[in-house]
Sequence to fold (427 residues):
Amino acid sequence: MVPTTNRLAANGHAPAKFWQNATTYFNRVFDELQLDNNWRSLLATPKRILTVSCPIRLDDGRIQTFTGYRVQHNNALGPFKGGIRYDLAVDQNEVMALAMLQTWKNALVGLPYGGAKGGVVCDPKTLSLAEKERLTRRYTSEVMPIIGPEKDIPAPDAGTDSQVMAWLLDTYSMMVGHQELAVVTGKPVSLGGSVGREEATGRGVMYVLARFLSTVHKSISDVTVAVQGFGNVGYHAARLIAERGARIVAISDRFGGIYNDQGIDIEAAGRWIRETGKLSGFSDGDEITNEELLTCDCDVLVPAAMENTVTEDFAPHIKAKLIVEAANGPTTPEADRILADNGVTILPDILANAGGVTVSYFEWVQGLDNYFWDKPRVDSELQKIMERAFEQVDTIANERDCDYRTAAYGLGIGRVAEALRLKGLFP
Ligand code: NAD
Fold:
């Protein structure tokens, strides 16, 4: 019997567990690579943590104060960069963990950035558009002293989108007195955003999956896929993987999912969710729970929801032989060990979902240049970077006979450690 749980119930206080997981993976790789112990605490510690309160007037006239964070983990390789999350489960530990992963991710794919993350404790679905705008503008003004095109460049994450980034751009630009396109990425295309940014994380997932399958002499059209989470990342990953001929047999959102062994019509599911706000009621399959999705019959499992969803409770029951981590931190270290023992291959988060920040980098470059690329250029440059990152990770995994997570984290952490060593300590 597979236990039923969710990310908050599974681990007591999930965000604290997430930070613990991120440092467990960090220490595991640090030890395996026998990196210089002198740098361990510096690499493991966020450089700056800013907590802000954001009071706003609600539509009914009441004042509510929201807590927000910006955590800047490490900037040895360049300005900080990382998304902003709006979610009720946001807390300092969660943002610290996400900022640390962002540092390794940016280094792994070779972007000239450090890692950061932000978040506001709120339920974006219950805020009106006007309330969300006021909250975004207030949060932006509160973190204003530490963000900027050369300092720290935010982007969307769960619960935020291009509209939120447009308000951030406008607030920052009003305060500095001129339009500053490069202060934020994931903006609407009509406002200096990059074509292809919205689907970029899902597209990157698809490129990495295709490249991995080619190493086992398969292609995307040979596999069946289950996708947990049907937001920005999950929807586009499912859509692009289906376009390449895979059968997507299961999808879900936070309320539950559907299963259809003949393959789900992903475009229709996307339309349904845009119209109704949730998957339930979409009739192209049988209703399943999120727990059933994790353990359903499929070749590839793509967790694209939130952290800590693949726990040790489910790991022994997972039938997929390949997990592609589209979300950040979906697999706990305990589950990771069980899955490894069961012969399951995991393409880790910092590799699989790096497509978003990669096209964010393209957007930043375009904003600084005021010269904008077309979609074929964005897609082909993204493909080049994702495939190069996969090949470097694959080479290390083969040379060291280690799993992909160890190889990917090792590469990312090693590059940041090398930058620190070369720079030395200030003063
Ligand atoms: P989103 O808010 O657009 O979508 C999240 C989806 O997951 C929704 O369908 C939601 O209903 C579902 N969900 C939430 N909790 C769940 C649970 N416990 N079980 C099952 N489903 C659940 O968010 P997103 O932007 O698609 O981000 C998803 C993940 O990908 C996050 O871990 C995020 O950090 C990561 N990520 C996002 C980007 C990006 O560009 N947006 C880039 C890299 C990584």
